Amino acid sequence: MLAVFVGFEIITKVPPLLHTPLMSGSNAISGITIIGAMLAATTPNTLTTVLGFLALVLASTNVIGGFLVTHRMLSMFKRKD
């Protein structure tokens, strides 16, 4: 619950110009989550392996979606020749 409050307070105080770098930072954090999920998926325990694989899929989806949104936002700032 504290993380939700702190995250909301941080996001509302960030100017819109800085949202793209903030999203890139969250993509880096998701990348770290992927490493942890890969480590969890290689354990001999079946439940841990399944949860690790699920975490790997969800974190990968988050990273790919984040980069696609960031790319789309950055393409809005390209000059039209």
From TrEMBL:
GO CC entries: plasma membrane
Keywords per UniProt: Cell inner membrane, Cell membrane, Membrane, NAD, NADP, Translocase, Transmembrane, Transmembrane helix
Catalytic activity: NAD(+) + NADPH + H(+)(in) = NADH + NADP(+) + H(+)(out)
EC supergroup of this enzyme: translocase
Keyword Iron-sulfur attached: no
Protein name: proton-translocating NAD(P)(+) transhydrogenase
Main location: membrane
UniProt xrefs under Pfam families: PNTB_4TM (PF12769)
Location relative to the cell: Cell inner membrane
EC assignment: 7.1.1.1
Membrane topology label: Multi-pass membrane protein
